[in-house]
Write a structure and sequence with these properties.
With 205 residues, this protein is an alpha/beta fold. It is built from eight helices and eight strands, in the order H-E-H-E-H-E-E-H-E-E-H-H-E-H-E-H. The chain has helices at 5-33, 48-63, 80-92, 111-118, 144-162, 169-177, 184-189, 200-204; strands spanning 37-42, 68-73, 97-101, 107-109, 121-124, 129-131, 181-183, 195-196. The longest helix is centred in the first third of the chain and has 29 residues, at 5-33. The chain is globular.
Length: 205
């Protein structure tokens, strides 16, 4: 009987080793299968450096095989050229992009509205607003003809992808032509956004 103890001990150690290996393998598999959401925070005017930051964030999201890139946005607006670049990046992204106007008190003004409508998923927190997207010149005052050209150009640009996202084209266009702005509830009711949420955690839940 005593001579069987080493055998039993060896079997016990072998069994423990197998259990440990199974646990580690399971943990690694769980970690590898856990969805990754990358995050970019924009709390400034839209300018060339903002477009550069978005490009880098999308590259990271692709490298990490993220299920989405979440953009937390709070901006009064910015440059139309930079906005066009960013909209193009969002529309051509292989990783779905979520634009979230947050936290309460934030806004997606002017250029921010274009970015919001370009997103695969557009969301706003309560106490935020978006819109007022009529184009303006950085310097000088355009004549009536130039104003009309700028307005038509911006409206056509917005229409070109709002319809693609299945959102309300006419209401979105009012943000350009009439400088309309919308609360989170108004934007949801008029099909400019897909949902409202209090914060990132609830948005992604």
């Amino acid at each position: 009987m005593q001579s069987s103890l080493p055998v039993r001990a060896s079997l016990l150690l072998y069994t423990l080793a197998l259990c440990l290996l199974a646990f580690v393998s399971s943990s690694i598999a769980t970690a590898q299968s856990a969805p990754v959401v990358c995050r970019l925070v924009i709390r400034d005017t839209i300018q060339p450096v903002t477009a550069w930051r978005l490009e880098r964030a999308l590259e990271q999201a692709n490298r990490e095989h993220a299920v989405a890139l979440l953009i937390d946005l709070d901006t009064p607006g910015g440059l139309l050229d930079s906005t066009r670049t960013m909209v193009g990046q969002i529309l051509s992204s292989q990783v779905p992009v979520i634009v979230f106007i947050a936290p309460a008190g934030a806004r997606g003004g002017s250029a921010g509205f274009f970015l919001l409508e370009a997103a695969d998923i557009a969301a706003m927190a309560q106490g935020t607003n978006a819109g007022a997207a009529h184009p303006v010149l950085e310097t000088g005052t355009p004549d009536d003809t130039m104003k009309q050209k700028m307005e038509n150009d911006a409206a056509a640009f917005l229409r070109s992808y709002v319809s693609r996202r299945g959102r309300n084209v006419s209401v979105a266009e009012d943000a350009v032509r009439s400088s309309k702005a919308y609360s989170a509830d108004e934007a949801l009711a008029q099909h400019l956004i897909d949902l409202t949420a209090p914060d990132d955690a609830q948005l992604l839940a």
